[in-house]
Amino acid sequence: MGISDLERVKFVNCLHVDNSSGYWFGGIIRTDENWPIRFRHIPYHMGLTGSARWHGDSVIGIFEPSWFSSHSAAISISRKIPFYTNQTTNKLCFKSDKTANYLMYKVCRARDVVDIIRSREQYLQTTSSADDIEKEFPTIGSVIIDIDIDSQGNLSHNLMKVCQTMRNLRLPIKAMYLIKEVDLFQKLDMNAISRTIAACRTNHTFFAAEFGCYVRIRDVENEFIDVTMLVSQHNGSSIGAVQVRNETCFVLDFTKWKVRCWYADQVCKNPLYALVDYVAFYGGSASSLPVESTLNVTLGNLNLYSTAYVDVAWSIAKGLIVDVAYGTQTVPLFINIPTTLEHERNVIAMLLAASLQGYNMFVIQLDSNIPEYASMDEQQRNRLRSWLQLAMVMPMLRVPASIIHNPIFYENLNYYKPIRDKYVLPHYHKAYLQNRLFGDPVMRPIWWFAKDRSSLLTYNHQFMIGNDLIVAAFLHSNEVNYRLYLPPGKWINPDTNVTNDGGTVITVHIGMKYNVVCFIRAEKLTDKPF
Q1: Which of 228, 155, 151 lies closest to 186 in space, CA to CA?
Q2: What pLDDT score was predicted for residue 389?
Q3: DSSP string spanning 134-154?
Q4: How far is CA 63 from CA 7, 11, 34, 74, in A?
């Protein structure tokens, strides 16, 4: 098929699932290397997807349901072995090089790891030497196990037994993931889960790459909140991400932080509205990991698929404290303002990422009855106003009547809302459609498409929405000249109507009043929504 070594591919519309079985329908297509390979939730798209990597002459992969059910299987298929389609059984069939018969590989339930082991044993019976085993069946791609988690976050003892069984059978795997679906208001102590997973990894070091826990929280409309936790290589610490609609909201160090997920908005009809309640320690460092290790774990284990993960991981590693309060009409976000420009940019990154959970909206209240606001000096209040300006370009704006009359808020609203409605929202709508159809992240750091990403990592205040919109936030009114990177093409600033050539770094003059800059690809500029 001409797919190079280690290049990702994906399976699309290949497998049908009911309550007990799965069927392979054939079909494999190529995708670019940035395709997020794990656990995509695609609304209105029934069936399964899958991912794979070439390893020598074999492709190692895993079938993935569009929504998490308990049907999944790790497979290893030689490039020379043709697929065999059988739509009447729950077998995955392909022809062996060694025999004339078709091997029958069951598409097994995730909780039944024995099926995976039996499939491997069945395959090994057709091989004649250890070399053949290593060549034809080098590694199982991933194993997913359904688990039970009690209200204190303790994993079932069966996990240890499964790990020991796979270790005794010398079953090589690249990654192991644990699945749990819980009710909406069930509280989970992710710290306890982290300790159990870390202990399991310490006792069973045969895991070659990743060992993580995915907790799916079902809301009242059968949508899901994903809480993803990946155990790092650094002293058993765990780096986690809270995901909503496949967009990573926050990256956390679960050794110090606890996470509770709640239904944030009971009024609005659109699913999915959710928040993360950070029950943080107060004082000291938020992470025992050095910043470099945190970034490495995040970049490696999250597969360049979270939004603004570098900034957020950096912030939490430095001890940034964010508390979230809830309302019935909106979601106010109270921020303990850091003192350095570095941290301020990271708060912006966190707000950008958090706002992309679907249609929800974070609002920074400026009312004087907020204790943090009352104690701020004028410079700090100006920073809050800048953050409020940034909120004007978010996907959905919902504010309570009590703060819409705030003159500062109203002034900013009048300025930014026409720009947002005319230029920004159409790109969000298109980006969300691409996300639902193909799994492409809605929002990416500006260096997402760059060949040499290291040269653009410092431009962490810029984000691409889809392929045609750039949003950049600047915080200090005394910093009026900023450097921005524009990808190849022609880009228009709708605020100034100036067109710039892309593929280079430009200097942008920021006015003293408004600190959010948008650039739209020139050929995509339109007065009408998509």
Answers
A1: 151
A2: 42
A3: HHH---EEEEEEE--B-TT-P
A4: 17, 8, 18, 7
Report d(CA 422, CA 346) in Å as an integer.
28
CA distance linking residue 515 with residue 510, whole number of Å: 6
Helix or strand holding residue 101 (H, E): none
Q: How far apart are CA 473 and CA 455, in angstroms?
A: 20
Helix (DSSP H) and strand (DSSP E) numbers for the chain: 12, 29
Kindly report, residue by residue over 27-86, the tens digit of the pLDDT: 333 232 322 222 222 222 222 333 333 334 333 344 333 222 223 333 333 333 333 232
Q: Does residue 6 surpass a pLDDT of 50?
A: no
Q: Which of 188, 185, 255 is nearest to 215 (CA)?
A: 188
Other Cβ atoms less than 10 A from the Cβ of 179: the count is 19
Pairwise CA distance, residues 21 & 105, whole Å: 12
Helices (H), 334-473: 341-355, 371-374, 378-391, 401-404, 407-419, 425-438
3-state secondary structure 39-97: CCCCCCCCCEEEEEEEECCEEEEEEEECCCCCECCEEEEECCCCEECCCCCCEEEEECC
The count of other CB atoms within 10 Å of the CB of residue 504 is 11
Comparing 70 with 90, which gets the higher pLDDT?
90
Q: Which H/E stretch holds residue 232?
A: none
Domains, the chain, in order of start with CATH, read 1-146 (no CATH), 391-524 (2.60.40.1180)
Question: By 3-state DSSP, what share of the chain in percent is helix, strand and coil, each rounded to 5?
Answer: 25, 30, 45
What gap in Å lies between CA 286 and CA 409, rounded to an integer?
33
Q: What is the dihedral of CA 154, 156, 159, 162, to 10 degrees?
A: 170
Q: Is the pLDDT of residue 298 over 60?
A: no
CA triplet 325, 257, 173: central angle to 5 degrees? Answer: 125
Cis peptide before 178 (omega within 30 of 0): no
d(CA 339, CA 379) in angstroms, rounded, equals 11
Of 242, 377, 369, whose CA–CA distance to 316 is shortest? 242
| Lowest mean pLDDT segment, chosen from 39-43, 117-121, 269-273 | 269-273
Instruction: Give the residue, 98 or 294, on which the prediction is more confident.
Output: 98
Q: Which residues contact 16 (CB under 8 A, 6 or more apart)?
A: 22, 23, 25, 47, 48, 87
What is the three-state SS of 154-191?
CECCHHHHHHHHHHHCCCCEEEEEEEEEECCCCCCCHH
Note the pLDDT tens digit of each residue in 364-392.
Answer: 333 343 445 556 666 655 554 444 444 43
* pTM score, whole prediction: 0.31
Give the list of residues 6+ apart from residue 269 with CB closer than 8 angstroms, or none.
none
- Is the per-residue pLDDT at 524 higher than 60? yes
Least confident of 153-162, 344-353, 356-365, 433-442: 356-365
